[in-house]
């Protein structure tokens, strides 16, 4: 012990002198400080391990500060052992100062975080919160279960009350469910049919082919019937009767198992109605053909007697004018006018009937060329009325040139004739593209048509004015409609009385023919 040295400055002596170098006191302090230092060194290691392992734990900085503080505290105890034999009191003081700084930082951080730490629920509070969560979760599960049950009941009610039969089968064709409509439709009770193969509801040849369709779909995914709707097949009732049905089939998967739903509708009545309509259509077509034939023959055969009446009335007017008195000459004029009127009607009727009998050759028709033909044909009418006819650049259409010319001529002639007295007719022909068709309009500034009658003007012999006021047979627009019908288009009119009329019609565009951009007519 006497060999222990003083501090390098020569003014300090080891701390052991204070213990008179008594071994019992000396080693008591050494052992105590050693164990304290060992504990202090282990605690920071445990704290660092805890913080690194539980990154979710809040206030990790506090743990690290506590670890540093405890580590420095352990170092001070090591220095306490060291200074028993070595008077390094300055070094010991520095370490204690560092320990003080760490302790103050830890204290400040602890005070700052104390409210947050106190806000952390206690175990009893956590138990209460967990109990409340479990109760809320139980309520939610009950609500979900109730909702699922309501949904199941609602869906079952919808399925059971559906008008159409709904049948589900598994991937081998075994019936899993059938609704009430299915029971009524096929005559089976659900308890009789569930578990049987769906083939029992099919007549041949559908029965033999069914398993092959189903197996092919399950193996390859190739859908010929499954996934389709509106397929007309046949079903078989419990009593063996076969009836037509509309079948839609869809596939779905639950827990890895494939199922199929079929929606079946009895179309017996619909098919009977369709067949009745077809029979009626055939009779109407036959009747219409007979009427057209009669109109053609009658109008053709009536021309000769009318020609005789007209000719002889003209001969009488020329040769016997001096013999007849004024009243007789009036009667003769009435006969002549009536014969001319009848001749016009017969010619229009013959043209109308001929439209349904003539074979129609279709080609690319230049509408501007046909419009020029019309203007030539109506030259006298246009000149007498001083009508102004204008047109947009007109395209080619696919149709019959003769009929297209008739169409334009009838529409333009009507636009010129149906004018208020003293009014100068203005007629404009325009066109716009409309999908695969051309949409033409013929606009005039004439009398106009009451909207209540605008759809009736296309009916045969439908006239809105007397023959004396405006001459005509009442077949011009009927001819126009028949021409447009034969070309696969539509014709209609829009008009207001006193503001003129617009007649619309559509004609298909010819394939591969570009739009014309010529100048106005």
3D structure, described in words:
With 521 residues, the protein is an alpha+beta fold. The chain is built from 13 helices and twelve strands. The strands form three sheets. A five-stranded antiparallel sheet has the order 2-1-5-4-3. A five-stranded mixed sheet has the order 7-9-10-12-11. The N and C termini lie far apart (137 Å).
Give keywords.
521 residues; alpha+beta; five-stranded antiparallel β-sheet; five-stranded mixed β-sheet; 13 helices; 53% helix; disordered N terminus
Biggest beta sheet summary: 5 strands, antiparallel
Low-confidence stretches: 1-9, 465-470, 514-521
Structural class category: alpha+beta
The whole-angstrom Rg is 54 Å
Question: How are the secondary structure elements laid out?
Answer:
Elements: H1 23-53, H2 60-82, H3 89-119, H4 123-160, E1 165-170, E2 175-178, H5 180-186, H6 190-193, H7 206-220, E3 231-236, E4 242-254, E5 257-266, H8 268-319, H9 326-355, E6 363-366, H10 367-377, H11 379-385, E7 388-391, E8 396-399, H12 401-417, E9 426-434, E10 437-444, H13 476-486, E11 491-495, E12 501-508
Parallel strand pairs: 7-9
Antiparallel strand pairs: 1-2, 1-5, 3-4, 4-5, 6-8, 9-10, 10-12, 11-12
């Amino acid at each position: 012990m006497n060999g222990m040295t003083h501090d390098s400055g020569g003014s300090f002596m080891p701390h052991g002198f204070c213990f008179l170098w008594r071994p019992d006191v000396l080693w008591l302090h050494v052992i105590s400080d050693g164990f304290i230092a060992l504990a202090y060194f282990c605690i920071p290691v445990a704290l660092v391990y805890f913080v690194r392992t539980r990154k979710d734990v809040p206030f990790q900085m506090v743990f690290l500060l506590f670890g540093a503080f405890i580590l420095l505290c352990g170092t001070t105890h090591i220095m306490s052992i060291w200074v028993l034999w070595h008077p390094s009191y300055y070094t010991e003081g520095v370490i204690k100062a560092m320990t003080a700084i760490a302790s103050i930082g830890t204290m400040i951080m602890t005070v700052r975080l104390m409210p947050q730490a106190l806000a952390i629920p206690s175990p009893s509070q956590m138990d209460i919160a967990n109990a409340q969560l479990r109760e809320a979760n139980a309520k939610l599960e009950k609500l979900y279960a109730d909702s699922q049950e309501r949904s199941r009941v609602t869906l079952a009610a919808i399925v059971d009350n559906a008008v159409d039969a709904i049948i589900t089968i598994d991937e081998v064709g075994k019936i899993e469910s059938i609704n009430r409509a299915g029971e009524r439709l096929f005559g089976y009770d659900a308890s009789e049919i569930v578990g049987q193969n769906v083939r029992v509801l099919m007549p041949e040849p559908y029965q033999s082919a069914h398993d092959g369709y189903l197996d092919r779909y399950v193996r390859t995914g190739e859908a010929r019937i499954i996934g389709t709707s509106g397929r007309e097949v046949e079903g078989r009732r419990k009593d063996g009767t076969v009836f037509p049905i509309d079948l839609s089939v869809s596939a779905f998967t639950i827990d890895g198992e494939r199922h199929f739903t079929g929606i079946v509708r009895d179309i017996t009545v619909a098919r009977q109605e369709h067949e009745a309509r077809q029979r009626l259509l055939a009779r109407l077509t036959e009747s219409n053909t007979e009427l057209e034939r009669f109109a053609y023959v009658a109008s053709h055969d009536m021309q000769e007697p009318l020609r005789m009446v007209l000719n002889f009335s003209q001969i009488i007017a020329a040769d016997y004018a001096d013999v007849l008195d004024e009243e007789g000459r009036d009667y003769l004029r009435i006969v002549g006018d009536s014969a001319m009127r009848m001749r016009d009607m017969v010619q229009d009727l013959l043209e109308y009937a001929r439209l349904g009998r003539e074979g129609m050759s279709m080609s690319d028709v230049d509408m501007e060329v046909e419009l020029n033909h019309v203007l030539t044909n109506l030259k006298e009418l246009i000149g007498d009325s001083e009508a102004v006819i204008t047109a947009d650049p007109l395209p080619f259409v696919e149709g019959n040139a003769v009929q297209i010319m008739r169409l334009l001529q009838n529409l333009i002639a009507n636009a010129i004739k149906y004018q208020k007295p003293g009014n100068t007719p203005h007629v404009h022909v325009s066109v716009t593209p409309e999908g695969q068709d051309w949409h033409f309009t013929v606009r005039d500034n004439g009398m106009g048509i009451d909207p209540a009658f605008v759809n009736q003007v296309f009916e045969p012999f439908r006239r809105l004015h007397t023959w004396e006021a405006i001459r005509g047979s009442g077949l011009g627009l009927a001819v126009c409609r028949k021409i447009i019908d034969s070309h696969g288009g539509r014709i209609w009119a829009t008009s207001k009385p006193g503001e003129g009329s617009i007649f619309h019609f559509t004609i298909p565009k010819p394939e591969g023919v570009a739009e014309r951009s010529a100048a106005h007519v």
